Amino acid sequence: MLRSVKELTGYAIVATDDEVGRCHDFLLDAKTWTIRYMVADTRKWLPGRKVLISPIALGDPIWEARRFPVLMSRDQIEASPSLDEDAPVSRQWEIWYHQHHGWPYYWGQGNLWAASTAPGTLFAGEKELGDAGPDLENPHLHSLNEVAGYRIDAKDGEIGRVQDVIVDDVTWNIRYAVVDTRAFLPGKTVLVPLASLDEVRWEDRALSIELTQAQIKNLPEYDPGAPVNRELEERLYDYQGRPRD
Questions:
Q1: Is the whole-model pTM more than 0.85?
Q2: How far apart are CA 161 and CA 149, in angstroms?
Q3: Which helix (H) or strand (E) holds 217?
Q4: Average pLDDT over residues 80-109
């Protein structure tokens, strides 16, 4: 199902034996637009540490109660490889993290999550990790809280700002940017498919989209109170003239 990331922020994170904190942020893999880690706010419990929880270890969310079950105990989370609160995530740290938990690496096998599209398959997957990959290039991870507010540039000029993103809660792949276009289209917020993303200019805090201002203007209006379902996605494909999945 497709979910608003803004809605997920603040959910309680519940280990197998107790609550450990709240969902504070997510780290986005900029190469695939896939969420690789949930950032937990555990400052009262583990001050000074950035506590990252991989979607590999997340159970099925309890939406009505705003709770994220984690398939680990508090002790297992506390024993995870430590990362200073302000430190970036290196590939070497990710290798330690996966080795510590005995999970296959998510990178290097051509799919979103190793050879799979869903992270949960890695939790009980093959424990033989093997080689870390052909190189140790650092991951391109960015805070989703940071991406909120980025400028959206259409092919013929600026059209709005990123307000939120919509994620597939099975694959953790981000499918749409929620774009506030009120400076150009009074009162209208639209979903812009990331399939139309041309490039991200991090230094400019901007996303370039392979759509014109007129095409974005004609996208269906987004209602945050309504589900992003197949019917809405088909309307988006129709407006763009793109083939449907």
A1: yes
A2: 5
A3: helix 213-217
A4: 90
